[in-house]
Amino acid sequence: MMFRHKPYIEDDLSPTQTYPSTVNASHDESELARFVEYICAHGDCLHLRSQQRVPLPQPGKVVVLREGTLAIDAMPAKGKLQVLDFLLPHDVLSAATVLPAPGVSLRAITPASLVSLDPPPVNRTVPPHDYWTFLVMRCHTQLARANIHQLLTGRLETEQRVASFILALALRKLGKESRCVSVELPMSRTDIANYLVINCDTLSRTMMRFCDSGLIERESRHAIRVVDIDALKKKSPLASLLSAMFEKRTDRQEYGFGSHAEARTSAPADEDHSVAPLVLTVAGLRSPASNPHSSRGAS
Fold it and tell me: Using CA atoms, how far apart are residues 87 and 249, in angstroms rounded to an integer?
């Protein structure tokens, strides 16, 4: 995987200037997108055309998907392709997060942009706390997604698998108090069926039943509209798990900015601190008060 060094966005910041820390402010998705754009602007980029295949990143490299959709493909000994995961914008990838087995590669479902990131000791424009919080929480989300995929393919019936797959994508875009949402499906029918471990014809029949029952509407070849999200949830035994994992939240909630300090101030005095809750352990890498960059801004 060969990257060429070219910033995605041009700015007038010198190498010694620092992106303002995100740990003190209240955030929305636009702030997260701006943070990702900034760290991507200081990495090496690789543009992929649709269906282009590339090997996994080299050991020690961390790659973030800036835009587009990728598939992680495996080719077992029998030669039948298996889609292990679909990567979406802001997902991260390294040699340590994907099984480095023969036949495993990345494939661009759509035109895509990958960025190879430099760690904080090299890239001093981003506070290390924010950099590592972003990477760890993206890996946390992707690991949860992989575990959900195991439950989906190992325990659910066909209709439940398809409903869960659509629901997970819909919850990422669903606005507050909304019951309907448009969902892009850039993957081919074959790729989706492969990922769900079902037959292509079975997938088509299931989608048609969902359309006939008023759950979804087809907007285009690669997009559907979820008409009733509550009814779709009833089709998925994993609905509560998917809601907890993928429903749109503020950046502060999703990435745990400040959660460690809030937990410490609200905890009872007699609480046993020998074992911390998993979410706070992962998200609260460092309390904001101890972050030396928390009050620094771009000059």
Answer: 20
